[in-house]
Design goal:
Elements lengths: L14 H11 L3 H10 L1 E4 L1 H4 L4 H17 L29 E3 L7 H8 L1 H11 L4 E5 L1 E4 L6 E4 L14 E7 L10 E3 L24 E2 L7 E5 L4 E3 L8 E9 L15 H5 L3 H6 L11 H21 L8 H7 L1
Antiparallel strand pairs: 1-9, 2-4, 3-11, 4-11, 5-10, 6-9, 6-11, 7-8, 7-10
Helix pairs in contact: 1-6, 4-5, 9-10
Length: 325
């Protein structure tokens, strides 16, 4: 990774200047403005998924679904997932999400590429800093259904929330999104309220401020962790495929525990930042004194490599690095 950012005046790189250089270089300035104003943005396919990334992800997801379930999802009709009730279904109804395929990051190089996508990294780094880590990577497969997803926030803390994003979501749209297709719903500007919805304001079909995202397949939908969002039911035939890449600041509890779970071969074939993204730089979660020191030495190795590669943009705790290095 090339180092970005001018000197801050005291001999150290300036992370804020660095991320702005990345944002400008990738043509994402207007999308940062959208995030700041509305709490979400849609990055178009030409910026979000070059080199056929969306098509390759869609096929890879279908392969994973077939391998796990024994049946390949029917994208054209959605018949394999119509009225899906196997998981998340409410009593007397169907699942608002459809099927959720979890833990995709270790399912092949195309998912590693999706995580290392420059547009995704720049926009999530803007929100959560250069130390941001992967919380989870999955895919929702939603056929025709009746149940909406209620409005909620991804920041799973008691209200009020901090203004800064502790969590952010970058979702690859692998099929077209609109109201009939069961698109994600947002309440624009709700990230600024720093609280979760209360009562009926969380009902997506009754909240007049909720708007449906309209975007073509291949887009990247990104939102602040405080933003109120949900999803409309899918009334059209076919399958809605969306691949959320949930990112978090390194002190937040992640959905997936990837420490010691990523093969060395996978780490070696990726840039130094990949190891930090997949939680190899996180020490906490150790099991006793010996494991704490082992994890600490491992974390220092990967954090140090990333720090060198990014030109010092990562904020490190010198004491912890000295103890564990």
């Amino acid at each position: 990774m090339a180092a970005y950012g001018s000197d801050s005046g005291n001999g150290t790189p300036d992370p804020l200047a660095a991320i702005w250089e990345e944002v400008r270089a990738l043509g994402l300035t207007s999308h940062v403005a959208d995030l700041d104003a509305h709490g979400f943005t849609v990055i178009p396919p030409e910026l979000a998924t070059p080199n056929g990334l969306a098509d390759r992800l869609r096929e890879a997801v279908l392969d994973v679904a077939e391998a796990r379930n024994g049946v390949r999802p029917d994208v054209a009709t959605g018949g394999t997932h119509a009225g899906y009730r196997k998981r998340f279904a409410k009593e007397g109804g169907d699942s608002p999400f459809g099927e959720l395929l979890q833990s995709l990051i270790l399912e092949g190089p195309v998912f590693e590429e999706a995580l290392m996508n420059p547009a995704l990294l720049a926009i999530t780094t803007y929100l959560c800093g250069y130390g941001v880590v992967l919380s989870s990577m999955g895919c929702f497969l939603k056929g025709p259904n009746e149940t909406p997803v209620d409005l909620h926030c991804d920041t799973l803390l008691p209200s009020p929330y901090p203004h800064e994003a502790l969590i952010c979501n970058a979702t690859y749209l692998l099929t077209d999104f609109d109201l009939e297709n069961g698109a994600t719903a947002f309440v624009p500007g709700s990230h600024k309220w720093c609280r979760a919805p209360r009562g009926e304001e969380g009902l997506v079909l009754r909240n007049p401020q909720a708007v449906a995202v309209e975007a073509p397949a291949g887009s990247l939908l990104v939102w602040h962790g405080n933003t109120w969002h949900g999803a409309f039911p899918r009334t059209a035939t076919g399958l809605r495929m969306s691949m959320p890449v949930l990112m978090a600041r390194p002190f937040m509890r992640t959905e997936e525990d990837l420490a010691d779970q990523v093969p060395e071969e996978t780490l070696r074939r990726n840039p130094p930042r990949f190891a930090v993204l997949v939680q190899q730089g996180i020490v906490y979660g150790y099991r006793g004194h010996t494991d704490a020191n082992r994890r600490g030495r491992r974390a220092a190795k990967y954090l140090g490599a990333y720090q060198e590669d990014c030109g010092g943009l990562l904020s490190l705790d010198p004491l912890r690095m000295h103890l564990y290095g």
